[in-house]
Amino acid sequence: MNPRDLSAHTEYVAGRGIEEVARELGTDPAELIKLASNENAFGPSPKAVAAIREHAENVSSYPKTSHTDLTERLADRWNVTAEQIWLAAGGDGALDYLSRAILSPGDDVLVPRPGFAYYAMSARYHHGEVTEYTLSADTGFEQSVDGILSAYDGERIVYITSPHNPTGSVCPVDAVEQIAAGTDEQTLVVVDEAYGEFADVDSAIGLVRERDDVAIIRTFSKAYGLAGLRLGYAVTPESWADAYARINTPFAAGELSCRAGLAALDDDEHVETTVSTVRWAREYMADHVDAPSWKSQGNFVLFAVGDATTVAEQLKERGVIVRDCTSFGLEECIRVTCGTEEETERAVTAINEVLNAL
Ligand SMILES: Cc1ncc(COP(=O)(O)O)c(C=O)c1O
Predict the structure, then answer these.
(1) Which has the closest alpha carbon to 210: 184, 238, 182, 170?
(2) Is the CB–ligand 1 distance for residue 339 below 6 Å?
(3) CA dist., res. 235 & res. 223, Å (int)
(4) Ligand 1 binding pocket includes 232 (Cβ within 6 Å)
(5) Is the whole-model pTM more than 0.90?
């Protein structure tokens, strides 16, 4: 027997891990810096690490209380009801829950190109079809109301990423509102705010309180440094939020993830250090790298370097792992995650050495 027809499905290409690259180069992982997956340069919130240690003994039980506590805590934070918070295994898991709740077989979703690959993957897993709207380098990869609405053709979900991966552009709340108003009643506008903590624009969660056709994705992977735990959530409209109870995997987030998430939400110092260093690093990189870049509101910067694969390979030889954006359809671009001050300065020096030697 065979699986169903998966020929339209693509594999997710993740940034490579330090250990993997160290093995390939035959070097000590400590010699390498990884700026390829938009992770937190400061590691996890120390309070989250302490909570994981403290609650490790509890993992023989299902995470009923911690799941409820984290849901309520997030509901308080965003001024929504607990039903509106859909905890999941990362932002990716939250995207899957929205697909499960919204898509019937054959429904279309509209996704940005370039853009985050998982929107299309999730739609296909749920028997959906994918159409794309194009973001152009010439307009700074702007996610404009006109651009999105002119590509829109009645799709069931429209994805907006703010800040956008891999370009760093944002879509302000008033633009999201115009897009939601310009689409059919039965179209959901999903605003993916995985990098929301790093942006200067407001979250679009306010719109979820006012409308029944906007949902938001948030994650603990970036600003809170908990990517390895797989914890994220969707904030969904009140009128249909009870769908979660019908579609979620039982205990959608694990005990240690929920405990760590609760602790991380109280760790202001870790988030502040992370966000202020990211803001410094993206300016520093844009000012000092000898290549054009686009203004980014995420924890990364996209640079036009010519042959991205060659540049990324040569940087790897110098111990700096960045993201070759060929898989995003941007063969001329690399995406560099903001590091600590020391890592960022080292990356800038290495990038300039490589570019100047080409
Ligand atoms: C735009 C965007 N959305 C969502 C995610 C998913 O993150 P996670 O599943 O780790 O929460 C990522 C991860 O890099 C991302 O770049």
Answers:
(1) 238
(2) no
(3) 18
(4) yes
(5) yes
Measured distance CA(38)–CA(263) in Å, rounded: 22
Nearest Cα residue to 185 out of 158, 212, 165: 212
216: which strand partners? Answer: 191, 235
Are 78 and 123 in contact, with CB atoms under 8 Å apart? no
DSSP string, 135-194: --GGGTT---HHHHHHH-SS-SEEEEESSPTTT-----HHHHHHHHHHS-TT-EEEEE-T
Give the pLDDT of the chain (358 residues) as one tens digit per residue. Answer: 999 999 988 888 777 788 888 998 899 999 999 999 999 999 999 999 999 999 999 999 999 999 999 999 999 999 999 999 999 999 999 999 999 999 999 999 999 999 999 999 999 999 999 999 999 999 999 999 999 999 999 999 999 999 999 999 999 999 999 999 999 999 999 999 999 999 999 999 999 999 999 999 999 999 999 999 999 999 999 999 999 999 999 999 999 999 999 999 999 999 999 999 999 999 999 999 999 999 999 999 999 999 999 999 999 999 999 999 999 999 999 999 999 999 999 999 999 999 999 8
List, in sequence order, every residue forming a beta bridge with 335; answer none if it has no partner.
302, 323
Question: 293 phi and psi, to 5 degrees?
Answer: -140, 175
Cβ of 219 less than 6 Å from ligand 1: yes
Report which ligand 1 atom has the smallest distance to the Cα of 91. 11
